Amino acid sequence: MAKIYATGKRKSAVAKVWVSPGSGKIIVNGMDLNTWLGGHEAIKLKVVQPLLVTKQESTMDIVAQTLGGGYSAQAEALRHGISKALAAMDPDFRAQLKPRGLLTRDARVVERKKYGKRKARRSPQFSKR
Questions:
Q1: Cα gap 44→41, rounded to integer Å
Q2: Which residues pair with 45 in a beta bridge?
Q3: At what angle do helices 41-53 and 71-89 cross, to 10 degrees?
Q4: Percent of the chain at pLDDT exceeding 90
Q5: 13-21 and 26-28 as β-strands: parallel, antiparallel, unpaired?
Q6: Pairing state of beta strands 60-67 and 26-28?
Q7: What is the per-residue burial (b if ≥16 Cβ within 10 Å, else e) of 17-49?
Q8: With 0-12 CB in 10 A as exposed, 13-18 as middle and 19+ as buried, what is 74?
Q9: CA nearest 46: which of 74, 4, 27?
Q10: Could you report the per-residue pLDDT of 27-42, keeping only the tens digit for each?
Q11: What is the residue-wise DSSP string for the chain?
Q12: Cα–Cα dist 123/129, whole Å
């Protein structure tokens, strides 16, 4: 089986993901997962969640490039990309990933700033005199 490519997105982060059969290595931006995320164990679990759900954690190699956003949004974009690649690989995986919401692109993004406001909705402080 060849490499399968998918793109994952979250906020302003994008992850380009290549999934291929292998020994379970995850390489992100040229680093392994532990180097890339350091001590953020909860975020590491988010990244490997699609592999755990489909029981593929030791049979798939993942190579990914992430850009934009922060490390947390990049990790969720990576999770989305891995899920999409696994679903493209095998329709049985899709049936496992879809009910858990792993194939849904989280569309929440930062609201734009409006004129006359300090932020998107925060008004300037009112002064009576």
A1: 5
A2: none
A3: 10
A4: 93
A5: unpaired
A6: parallel
A7: bbbeeeeeebbbeeeebeebbeeeeebbebbbb
A8: buried
A9: 74
A10: 999 999 999 998 899 9
A11: ---EEEEEEETTEEEEEEEEESS--EEETTEEHHHHHTT-HHHHHHHHHHHHHTT-TTTEEEEEEEESS-HHHHHHHHHHHHHHHHHHH-HHHHHHHGGGT-SS-----PPPPPTTSSSSSPPPPP---
A12: 17
Q: What is the pLDDT of residues 44-92, one digit of tens each?
A: 999 999 999 999 989 999 999 999 999 999 999 999 999 999 999 988 9
Contacts of 35 (CB under 8 A, 6+ apart): none
Of 36, 87, 45, 89, nearest to 64 by C-alpha is 36
Place of tokens 């929440």: 108
Chain segment 49-60, per-residue pLDDT in tens? 999 999 998 999
